[in-house]
Amino acid sequence: MTAPKGKYMWTVTVGEKGQIVIPKQARELFDIKAGDTLILFGDKERGIAIPPKTSFDELFGMAFNTKESESI
Q1: Global pTM value
Q2: From the centroid of its chain, how far is CA 66?
Q3: Which CA distances in Å does 33 have to 15, 25, 38, 49, 57?
Q4: More confidently predicted of 33 and 39
Q5: Averaged pLDDT, 13-29
Q6: Do 57 and 51 touch, CB atoms closer than 8 A?
Q7: Are the CB atoms for 51 and 40 separated by under 8 Å?
Q8: Which of 4, 32, 60, 69 could cross-link 27 (Cys pair, CB 3.0–4.6 Å)?
């Protein structure tokens, strides 16, 4: 099966401490570096999502009703 353009899927294994390793291809694609902070969303019906860090500003603005141009 071929994935639609721009869509990806990886598998990860959960370690004894509940940790997962983000695959190298995913880290490179989303420019995830050591020390980066990620947001993890969970929905009991739909599962877990980790949005790209570039969406943090938009998510922050929606959560706190601010404009991206405003300073923190």
Answers
A1: 0.66
A2: 21
A3: 20, 12, 10, 18, 18
A4: 33
A5: 94
A6: no
A7: no
A8: 32
- Which residues sit opposite 43 in a β-bridge? 47
CA distances from 23 to 14, 57, 62 (A): 13, 24, 29
Contact 12, 25 (CB under 8 A): no
If pLDDT is split at 50, 70 and 90, which confidence band does 39 have? confident
Q: How many Cα atoms occupy the beta-carbon half-sphere of 14 within 13 Å?
A: 2
CB 13 within 8 A of CB 20: yes
Q: Hey, what are 49's tokens? A: 């999502």
Q: In this model, does residue 8 exceed pLDDT 60?
A: yes
**What is the C-alpha to C-alpha distance for residues 21 and 31, in angstroms, rounded to an integer?**
15
